[in-house]
């Protein structure tokens, strides 16, 4: 007996695949294998010729690959105990992260000279410390606190996901952190990259196009052969405007349970939308 509901479901998915530009025959096999859920998220694009041409993956780092909130909060708590200081450490970590964008903007708009992320983080902590009841902090202490961003825990899927994806593509962070920071961060978190693109390589911060296109050039690729993977829609939008492919990865706990940092994108905003890097690896066939 023919299952008409299953038959209609298959037809609906194939129609959706055609709308998305996915090879229908490949999509049919994917549906049969249970790999596709069209209409909610695009999880399977192996049949898409454009996706098959992706040679390199760039990864946003803070929030996308590592859990900065847990890492910075834990280190601030440890430092506070050692100094016999009490403060709202989770609140300070969150406030510190929220000052990140405005600090970068001052460099990007020419309001101040170039400075790497350690310098900017030191300056923002100097301003925030009194607001959280902390005493005046020395330059050495501020530098020590800024280096907390050099050692952060990876999300549970990051190490394995990067390793799987590296079997198919070049992989590298494209971060507003500088090279020295990213090397230390990768070693501490156990992440293996092919190379590292820090903001100091380009003397520009994202979302300046020089960052995305500079990394594309150093990879020796065309923009549409490179995909940015990020949990922040604004980063992906900037990359897309430079001609890169885009993949949104969901990190709902970046700012803590129930705290929304960025509004999640709508279906179709980016080339791919995945729950984590393991799902991305499966999507890309590795």
Shape label: globular
Our Rg estimate from Cα atoms comes to 21 Å
Q: Architecture of the largest domain, according to CATH?
A: 3-Layer(aba) Sandwich
Main sheet record? 5 strands, parallel
Mean pLDDT: 87
- Tally of domains: 3
Class by helix and strand content? alpha/beta
Into which percentage range does the β-strand content fall? 5-15%
The secondary-structure element order is HHHEHHHHHHEHHHEHEEH
Strand order in the largest sheet: 2-1-3-4-5
Q: Which key terms come to mind for this protein?
A:
single chain; 286 residues; alpha/beta; Rossmann fold; DNA polymerase, domain 1; 5-stranded parallel beta sheet; globular
Give a quick summary of the entry.
This protein has 286 residues and is of the alpha/beta class. Helices cover 47% and strands 7% of the residues.
Written account of the structure:
- This protein is α/β, with parallel strands linked by helices.
- It folds into three domains: 1-50; 51-66 and 153-281, HAD superfamily/HAD-like (Rossmann fold, 3-Layer(aba) Sandwich); 68-150, DNA polymerase, domain 1 (Orthogonal Bundle), CATH 1.10.150.
- 47% of the residues lie in helices and 7% in strands.
- The chain has helices at 4-19, 24-32, 49-52, 68-82, 89-98, 100-108, 117-128, 139-146, 158-166, 179-189, 199-202, 209-219, 233-241, 277-283; strands at residues 56-59, 170-173, 226-230, 245-249, 272-274.
- The protein has a five-stranded parallel beta sheet with strand order 2-1-3-4-5, with helices on both faces.
- Helix 1 packs across helix 2 (24-32), helix 4 packs across helix 5 (89-98) and helix 7 crosses helix 8.
- It is globular.
- The two termini are 37 Å apart.
- The model is unreliable at 1-24 and 33-47 (pLDDT under 50).
């Amino acid at each position: 007996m023919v299952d008409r509901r299953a038959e209609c479901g298959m037809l609906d998915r194939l129609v959706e695949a055609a709308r998305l530009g996915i090879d229908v025959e490949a999509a049919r096999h994917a549906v049969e294998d249970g790999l596709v859920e069209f209409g909610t998220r695009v999880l399977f694009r192996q049949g898409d010729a454009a996706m098959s041409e992706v040679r390199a993956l760039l990864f946003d780092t803070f929030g996308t690959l590592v859990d900065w909130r847990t890492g910075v909060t834990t280190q601030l708590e440890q430092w506070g105990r050692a100094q016999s200081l009490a403060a709202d450490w989770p609140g300070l970590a969150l406030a510190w992260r929220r000052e990140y964008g405005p600090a970068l903007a001052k460099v990007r708009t020419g309001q101040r000279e170039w400075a790497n992320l350690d310098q900017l983080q030191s300056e923002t902590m100097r301003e925030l410390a009194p607001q959280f009841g902390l005493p005046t902090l020395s330059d050495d202490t501020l530098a020590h606190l800024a280096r907390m961003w050099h050692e952060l825990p990876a999300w549970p899927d990051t190490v394995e996901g990067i390793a799987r994806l590296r079997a198919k593509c070049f992989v590298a962070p494209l971060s507003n952190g500088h090279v020295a920071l990213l090397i230390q961060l990768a070693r501490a978190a156990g992440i293996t990259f092919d190379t590292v693109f820090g903001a100091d390589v380009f003397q520009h911060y994202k979302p300046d196009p020089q960052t995305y296109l500079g990394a594309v050039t150093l990879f020796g690729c065309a923009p549409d052969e490179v995909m940015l993977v990020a949990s922040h829609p604004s980063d992906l939008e900037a990359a897309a405007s430079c001609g890169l492919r885009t993949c949104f990865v969901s990190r709902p706990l970046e700012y803590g349970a129930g705290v929304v940092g960025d509004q999640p994108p709508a279906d179709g905003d980016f080339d791919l939308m995945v729950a984590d890097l393991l799902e991305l690896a499966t999507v890309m066939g590795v």
